Amino acid sequence: MAIRILFLGPLGDLAARGEREVAGPLDWDGLLESVGPQVAAQLRDDRVHVACAGKVLADKTALLAQDGEEVALLPPVSGG
Length: 80
Hints:
This is MoaD/ThiS family protein. The chain is an alpha+beta fold. It contains 3 helices and 7 strands; from the N terminus they run βαββααββββ.
């Protein structure tokens, strides 16, 4: 099994893909390496959130995804 990384909104445009599969387990440093330098730079922004297994992480640097889980990269949301 693998971990599925979902690139949502403009992060998908930046990554030039909507999703990617990587081998687990996956921690914060592994995530930054897996997504490429442009997306990694965005992930360091406090306004960008990370969800693992359907739950938004309070501390995204504490990420520890296991095989079969999904990691979603959530860009900032603008309101009206």
